[in-house]
Write a structure and sequence with these properties.
Layout: H1 6-10, H2 16-27, E1 32-36, E2 39-44, E3 47-54, E4 59-63, E5 87-91, H3 94-99, H4 101-117, H5 133-141, H6 143-151, H7 154-165, H8 170-185
Antiparallel strand pairs: 1-2, 2-3, 3-4, 4-5
């Protein structure tokens, strides 16, 4: 156990017992506990294997390369349609975690083997994501904005593209773009 991560388990509230049980199970698989993105992340030789996170309706173990797992028991869920390779195993009670502990460990050990194999996950290229017409227009009007956007990391570019294009109405897309232009010009991602 990494004492730098303890605060996460102490503040968990509704899911405290569940994530403490998940922590115990994951640590029994000989992974290193670290704090990444403000959540407990479990690594092998510095490479991410799984993390624990909580949501309003459930807590989950996220497998970074979950799409590469066999998932024989059909326990893995794609969190949203935009998540490419990660998969979650969701829990809504401590009893559910206890019932699936053996399966969870098997999935973790499989994830470790996937990571050891060096398999690379194919990701969609940024240019394969749709770009809202309003954002295309903004980039065409400002070479400064276009250069700043192109200088962002692919992940930051994708986050902006998804956020802008997910709005149903043009007015909302325009408002979102206007809100984030200063961050793009500053070289920052949507969550920075």
């Amino acid at each position: 156990m990494n004492p730098n991560v303890d605060f996460y388990f102490d503040k968990a509230g509704k899911w405290e017992n569940e994530i403490r049980a998940l922590r115990k199970t994951i640590l029994s698989c000989q992974l290193q506990e670290e704090l990444k993105w403000g959540t407990p992340c479990y690594t092998l030789d510095g490479r991410n294997i799984v993390l624990i996170h909580i949501f309003k309706e459930y807590c989950a173990v996220l497998f970074f390369k979950g799409v590469a797992l066999q998932d024989a028991q059909k326990l893995l869920i794609q969190q949203t349609e935009n998540v490419q390779t990660a998969r979650q195993m969701r829990f809504t009670s401590l009893s559910e975690i206890k019932k699936t502990t053996t399966a969870l460990k098997a999935y973790i050990f499989e994830a470790i083997e996937v990571e050891k194999s060096g398999v690379k996950m194919p990701l969609k290229k940024t240019k394969e994501f749709s770009m809202a017409e309003e954002f295309k227009s903004a980039l065409n009007k400002s070479t400064k904005l276009k250069k700043a956007f192109e200088a962002l990391t692919p992940g930051r570019q994708r986050a902006y593209l998804l956020h802008f294009s997910s709005a149903k109405q043009s007015a909302t897309r325009i408002a979102r773009i206007e809100k984030y232009v200063p961050k793009i010009l500053a070289g920052k991602g949507i969550d920075d």
